[in-house]
Amino acid sequence: MTPFVYARADSLGETIAAGAAPDSAFLAGGTELLNWLRLGIAGPARIIDISRLDGLDQIEALPGGGLRIGALTHLNDVAQHELVMRDYPVLSQAILNAASPQLRNLATIGGNLLQKTRCAYFRAEEQLPCNKRRLGSGCSALHGINDNHAIFGWTEDCIATQPSDPAVALAALDAVIVTAHRSGGRRIPAAEFHLLPDTRPEADNVLQQGELITAIELPAPAPRSAYLKVRERESYEYAIVSAAAVLEMDGRTIRRAGLALGSVALRPWRLSAAEERLAGADVGDREALSTAIEQSFAEARPLLQNAYKIELAKTAALRAIERAARMPS
Amino acid sequence: MDFHDRHLLRLRVNGEDHSLSDLDPRVTLLDLLRERLHLTGTKKGCNFGECGACTVHLDGRRVNACMILAVSAEGREVTTIEGLADGDALHPVQQAFIDHDGFQCGFCTPGQVMSAAALIEEGHTGSDAEIREWMSGNLCRCSAYPQIVEAVRAAAGRASQ
């Protein structure tokens, strides 16, 4: 780690004032930042410890229906919160499928969304060509080992994927990410928070320097929702593909569907075309569901080693829908 | 905001208060425990939060000590494997690991035991599958997993399934 100075923040005001200075980084759970420091992925001159800021670790019902989750709430506390388990099972399941129990006691829901890709070339201890590490240096994965890389939205500059599980659930739920910044905060739709590599391959998300996530807001309860994670181990592993499904049902008929895939692109991948076709479908009609899902795969593009992920992703989406339909409403 | 490159850290470890001066903010809680407090029971495995060998309790919750800047633990209470037993009387999880042969080389064992002790407090012992899932953050390269599950089940006071 390169040397840095450290201070503990006492108020949100001083946090966003100090965070605006270049070379400043916020420290919440630390489970990503410390590894970035070790690998040289980040080398901030100043670290602002926000972990004890008051009032950012609460979960509260919103007046109009919906839930506000403070950004500093630890992952285990979000996933095991009564209202989250009852009303947003897709989020609870996504979190409990992420990382390990110890890491989930440290990591926060806001920080989780700031994860960087797990691409081995990006995380390599010896620096290899990687446009996310050094813009213009190229992409080692493009002609290297890419069996677990993107099938959607990639460019020759970067073929990596975003590894967050909760982010996939939040995208399917149409959650909103609330931020604070010296020049005022904003509300960012979860599905638009992460950036694809087509504009700035070195950037991961839309946040500006010093912009702090303060809360995640969930819309109306989504009890018929589920998360499915496919991975090489049964537990404690990143996804090959994951799927989040959020359904509104009339009996056996899907009235409205929210569908997102994880680990297939640099952002949670909403299956909008499939969602449109799913409206009105009988959830017991597998053929109709598959046909609907197929609509969203016209734009899928395999790499040399990952064509299998396309079939896997379709099946995961189908199973997530079926799992969501079985949830008690 | 008051930024510094050296810090004074007050920390309670295994019931004992410590005041540590001149602390570089880059030092992790894991390195502080091992190098400054000479509590070497907490192991340094991967140092990337992946193996669980450094699991300790921070204010009663299990965490990876390698993922925590020591300075950020100001005023908190840490329990390490050295603080788990009550004098010469082993913690039930420690005894269960001996009774059920829950280790081979022993390197991961302090982390396994700390994780298991917390898991039992959390109540995640409803089935062997639940124990496995909630112990998944602790890797054992000798692969003593079946015996570890037995030990956790026994320590939780559950009859064999």
Task: Give an overview in words.
- The complex is a heterodimer of chains A (329) and B (161).
- Chain A is of the alpha+beta class and 329 residues long.
- Chain A has helices at residues 12-19, 33-39, 75-79, 82-87, 89-96, 101-106, 109-112, 166-172, 272-278, 286-295, 308-326, and strands at 5-8, 24-27, 46-49, 59-61, 67-70, 176-180, 186-189, 212-218, 225-230, 241-250, 253-262, 269-270.
- Chain B is α+β, with helices and mostly antiparallel strands and 161 residues long.
- Chain B has two domains: 7-83, Beta-grasp domain (Ubiquitin-like (UB roll)), CATH 3.10.20; 92-155, Orthogonal Bundle (DNA polymerase, domain 1), CATH 1.10.150.120.
- Helix content of chain B is 30%, strand content 16%.
- Chain B has helices spanning 29-36, 92-99, 109-122, 128-134, 145-155; strands spanning 7-13, 16-23, 55-58, 61-64, 77-79.
- In chain B, a hairpin with a 2-residue loop joins strand 3 (55-58) and strand 4 (61-64).
- The longest helix of chain B is centred in the C-terminal third of the chain and has 14 residues, at 109-122.
- The mean pLDDT of chain B is 96.
- Chain A binds chain B through residues 1, 3-9, 14-15, 17-18, 27, 29-31, 34-35, 37-38, 46-49, 51, 99-103, 105-106, 235-236, and chain B through 1-5, 7, 24-26, 28, 47-49, 52, 55, 61-64, 66-69, 71-72, 74, 115, 118-119, 122, 124, 132-134, 136-138.
